[in-house]
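for the recovery benchmark. tokens below, seq after
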């Protein structure tokens, strides 16, 4: 077994697959588990990999729920003996003190891992995510917005982002002291940057946030963090920018080798797409797919959320889907078309009437969507599927007997096609694409069907 270089826990599935992709494409073979593995499975799957990930669901958890989930996960990662442990969050850092609290997760990690310090690496230039003087910016189309003015994230249905400065946003969730190494400091000689980092830690700062505008910044950050590795594991928070920073530095330093190019997967006969995303970009992708041969089926989410009507709604969707699949068509099952779809409020109203926390909509709908997808895979013998929406992916795939995944091929950055590993013959080798709401071109679902890499 090769020595492990790092381990991560992702707060949702799409982000976890994104981290796995960043590592694998840069010479760090990675296995991603869908839940905390038992010792026998862990031992079996650690062969020929250099990194381990756990795809979690803490993005939708309250702090109390995190208390029951994260300490055991962090302890397992620490027991692997890795030098770096990463709490992987969405590239838009969306969270709040009450839901998906990144600060609370950091508090738990410090308690369990006892790192000498923590770092935040959030920018991912390859997908248009930047941190400049502590402020987060995201590119949408040909425009770049500060996070609190982002057309979707500023009105996210669960965790709307009303602060662009990550230091202030993070401070609402934890009392950990954070200092910034900004672009001007990153432009100085490496020894100067390293000394500045040490001074910040000596002054009592527990976490260092890095600006990230370009790939050179990531390479410098990766070198700096690697040089700080000691007896206790370093704890990192952030997007896949952390994986890109570390893997690209390791490759430049000869610690890992440049991997061989991955061949395209080629076309599948048909696919099923399950979307729980309310993002405008996903709505555009759904419409594009339906305009190019996919059959669209709207899910009545207000019925799915109710246990008295959920099974009948699942059966309706399954029967319609099987009819289209027998005709050789690909289908897209969608919960909503964009953030202004009236079905969102209708579903929230139904949840309130049933006494269900509306912040748990992803959990409840994701489970129902997963049961639909499971039956379609089992009945129709599907070989490739796609799931859209961070919360959706996390819960959908948990309804199938898949214990781990590896990168099969990149489609577009942060939305790869993965190969599933299972002890159940139906799901062994299943090809699973996943994407967050804001990721991908309008033709993304067509690219998944054809097994083609996006032209970047």
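predicted aa per position
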């Amino acid at each position: 077994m090769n020595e492990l270089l790092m381990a991560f826990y992702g707060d949702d599935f799409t982000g976890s697959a994104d981290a796995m992709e960043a590592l694998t494409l840069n010479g760090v073979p990675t296995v991603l588990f869908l839940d905390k593995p038992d010792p026998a499975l862990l031992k079996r799957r650690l062969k020929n990999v250099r990194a381990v990930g756990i795809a979690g669901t803490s993005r939708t958890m309250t702090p109390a729920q995190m208390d029951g989930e994260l300490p055991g996960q962090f302890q397992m990662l620490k027991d692997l003996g890795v030098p770096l442990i990463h709490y992987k969050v969405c590239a838009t850092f969306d969270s709040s003190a009450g839901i998906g609290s990144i600060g609370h997760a950091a508090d738990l990690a410090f308690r369990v891992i006892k790192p000498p310090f923590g770092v935040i690496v959030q920018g991912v230039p390859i997908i248009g995510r930047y941190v400049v003087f502590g402020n987060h910016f995201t590119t949408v189309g040909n425009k770049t917005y500060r996070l609190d003015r982002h057309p979707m994230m500023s009105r996210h249905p669960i965790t709307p982002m009303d602060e662009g400065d990550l230091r202030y946003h993070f401070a609402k969730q934890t009392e950990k002291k954070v200092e910034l190494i900004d672009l001007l400091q990153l432009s100085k000689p490496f020894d100067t940057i390293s000394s500045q980092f040490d001074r910040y830690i000596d002054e009592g700062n527990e976490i260092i946030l890095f600006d990230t505008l370009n790939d050179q910044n990531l390479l410098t950050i990766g070198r700096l963090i690697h040089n700080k590795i000691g007896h206790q594991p370093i704890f990192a928070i952030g997007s896949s920018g952390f994986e890109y920073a570390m893997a690209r530095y390791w490759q430049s330093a000869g610690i890992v080798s440049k991997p061989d190019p991955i061949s395209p997967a080629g076309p599948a006969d048909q696919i099923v797409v399950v979307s729980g995303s309310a993002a405008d970009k996903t709505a555009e992708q759904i419409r594009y797919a339906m305009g190019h041969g996919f059959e669209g089926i709207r899910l009545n989410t207000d019925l799915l959320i109710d246990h008295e009507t959920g099974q009948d709604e699942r059966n309706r969707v399954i029967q319609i889907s099987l009819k289209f699949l027998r005709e050789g068509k690909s289908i897209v099952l969608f919960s909503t078309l964009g953030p202004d779809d009236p079905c969102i409020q209708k579903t929230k109203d139904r949840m309130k009437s049933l006494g269900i926390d509306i912040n748990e909509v992803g959990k409840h709908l994701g489970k129902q969507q997963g049961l639909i997808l499971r039956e379609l895979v089992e009945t129709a013998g599907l070989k490739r599927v796609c799931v859209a929406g961070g919360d959706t992916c996390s819960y959908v795939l948990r309804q199938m007997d898949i214990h781990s995944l590896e990168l099969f091929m990149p489609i577009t950055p942060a939305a790869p096609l993965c190969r599933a590993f299972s002890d159940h013959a139906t799901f062994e080798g299943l090809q699973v694409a996943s994407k967050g709401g804001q990721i991908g071109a309008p033709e993304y679902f067509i690219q998944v069907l054809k097994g083609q890499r996006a032209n970047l």
